[in-house]
Amino acid sequence: MDTEYRALQQGSSSSWCTADASSWGAAQQQKRQRCQASSSDQVGSSSNSSLKISEPQQIQEEEEEEEDYYMEDDCDDDGDGYDEDDYEFDEADFNQHLADKFDDLDLPPGVEATVPWLQKIAPKEEAKEPPKSNTADENENKYTQFKQFDTVQNFSDHYYAKNSNGEPTRAWSKRVQHDWKLLEKDLPAYIYVRVAEDRMDLLRAAIIGPKGTPYHDGLFFFDVHIPSNYPSGPPAVYYHSGGLRINPNLYDNGKVCLSLLGTWSGRGCEKWNPAQSTMLQVLVSIQALILNDKPYYNEPGYESYANTPQGERSSMDYNDKTFLYSCRTMLYSLRRPPEHFADLVAGHFRVHGHIILAACKHYMAGNDIGSVVPEDEDEEDSEYKSGDAGASSSSSTAPKPKPKPGLIKAIPPNGRSSGSFNPSLKVLYEDLLMEFNVKGADTRKFIVEKLKKNQPAAT
User: Which stretches are tagged as biased composition: Low complexity (predicted)?
Assistant: First the structure.
C-alpha cells in the first residue's frame, strides 16, 4: 500500500493507478498476460510507465491487489481468456468497484476529485410518480354515501342549542325515538335529517326544492327543537333564511308560519294532533305546502286571486323574485354550509350545478320560472343566440308569440314586470358559475361560452 501511495503522489502513469473505464480493452489484455504468467514488470499497458518493482514479494502483493480491481473472471485452462464480446461493460459499476478499493487509503486532499473512479457513485433512485389526487373521488363518495337519516354527536351551530329541556322523561325519550324510526324508514326523496345523540331535542333537516317550482334544486335548512311537553305540543322550527324571505310562510327572521306548528291558525287535520302528528308530517308539510310552484298564493287572502289575470301576473312576478332569492340562498349555503351537511351541500351542487346554470339562462331568455329547461343544450344555445323566447321540442312551454305592435309599450321586455330581473340574475349567474366550478360541477360549457363572449371582436 506504501508503494501505491507513493505512486499516486508522483503522478505515476501506471495502469492500476490511471486506468479508467474507457481502457477496458487494455485491462483485458493485462489479464490475459497475467494468465499466461508474463514476467513483465509493467502493470499497465501505457508505454511510458515508469513504475518498476524490484522485490518479488512486492510484485506478488501488487498483482494480487491488481487482480481485485478487475472483475472476478477466471482464465481459461488453455490460456486464451474469455471473449470480450460476451461481456457487457457497465462503466458506473466498474468505477464504483475501483473506488471501493480506496476506502481505507489515506489519500492527500483533493485526489478523489481528480480521479473519476475514486468518487463514490450515488445510488440510483427510482423516480417516484407523485401520488394521484383522489380528492374528487373522495368528495363523490362522501356525497353518494350521505344518508338521508343519521345520528351525530351534537350541533354547535344549532339555533336552539342554548335551549334546555332538563332531564328527559322516559315517555318523552320513547316518543322521540319513535319519531326517529319513522324518519329513518319513511323519509321521502329530497329530505335529509340529522339528529343529535347527546341532545335528543335537536334535529336539523335539509329539503331540496321540488322541480317545477321557483325553489328547484335549491337547498333549504331547518333547525328543529323538540320541547319537553312533546308530543302534547308541536316542535319549534327555525328556517336558515340568510336574511331573505323567499316565501310568505318563511320569514327573513327564520320564523316558519304553519298551522301544524301552531304559528298560524288552522282547522281539523291542519293543526297539531298529539296522537297522530309526527316530525315526519312537519317536514313533508314544509316540502309540499310551502315550497310549491305558486308561493304567492300562500299569503293569506291572496288565494282569491287565483286563476285571474291580475293574480297570475302577480304570481309570476313573485316567482321571479323568489328564484333570485333562491340563488342567493344557494350561495349562502355554499359559503357557509350548516354543520354536518357540508358534504351534502358540496355534492349536491356539484351534481346539479350544470342544470341550475342552464335554468338561469333559460329564464333570462324570457321563460317562466319553474318551466322545464330543455335537455338539448345545443338547441337551447341557438335559441339564446336567435333571441327566441324558449321554443324547444323538449320544453313543456310553447313558443311565445311576438307581441302585436299596439301592445309593445304595454308588455315589458321578456314579458316581465320588473326590468331588474335579468341584470340581477346575470350577476348571480356569474357568482354561481364560480362557486359551482370550485365544487367540481360540470361548468366547461358555460366557461367556454363566457370566454368567447369576452373575446374582442375581430376587425
Answer: 12-50, 387-399
